[in-house]
Automatic annotation (TrEMBL):
It comes from Flavobacterium sediminilitoris. The lineage of its organism: Bacteria, Pseudomonadati, Bacteroidota, Flavobacteriia, Flavobacteriales. Residues 1-13 have a biased composition (Polar residues). Residues 1-127 are annotated as: Disordered. Residues 20-121 have a biased composition (Basic and acidic residues). This is Colicin import membrane protein.
Length: 178
């Protein structure tokens, strides 16, 4: 048995007690080596398991952090898109309101201009009769005329036959025969 092991002490000339003691010592060394190998393997397995658990925890933490970062970025992008959409809608509503206000103002201005033009036209072509003939104020006639030191509007002149007769007889350039 000891012949194969070069490090084992020589058993030649040993007594059975010495042989038994050597065998026990060898078994004890072997058991101790096996125990140390088992402890070393357990420690390595434990260290490996701890390392794997740590790596797994790190990977999970990293994945969680990445997920949270992605969710935060998505939320920020969504909020930004909503803000931009709101600003665009507000700008469009404002532009529409301004356009409607402009169109309304333009329509009112046109209506007023048309009304003024119509009133002016009516004023200009209002006929009147003097000595059986029809006359009207000429286009050159101002809205107000001074007659004998007093200022009259066209409407006031139309109600005063004496002044109209004087203007017609005096061949005023502001009177036109129809």
């Amino acid at each position: 048995m000891a012949k194969n092991n070069k490090n084992a002490p020589s058993t030649e000339g040993a007594t059975p007690e010495e042989l038994e003691a050597a065998r026990l010592a060898e078994a004890e060394v072997k058991a101790k080596a096996e125990q140390e190998a088992k402890e070393k393997a357990d420690a390595e397995a434990k260290a490996k398991a701890e390392q794997e658990a740590k790596e797994k925890a790190d990977a999970e933490a990293k994945a969680k952090a990445e997920q949270e970062a992605k969710e935060k970025a998505d939320a920020e992008a969504k909020a930004k898109a909503e803000q931009e959409a709101k600003e665009k809608a507000d700008a469009e509503a404002k532009a529409k309101a301004e356009q409607e206000a402009k169109e309304k103002a333009d329509a009112e201005a046109k209506a007023k201009a048309d009304e003024e033009a119509k009133a002016k036209e009516e004023e200009e072509i209002t006929p009147f009769e003097v000595n059986g003939r029809n006359y009207t104020f000429s286009k050159r006639c101002p809205n107000k005329l001074q007659f004998e030191g007093k200022v009259y509007s066209k409407n006031e002149l139309l109600t005063n036959e004496e002044i109209l007769t004087s203007l017609v007889i005096g061949e005023s350039p502001f009177i036109q025969k129809l």
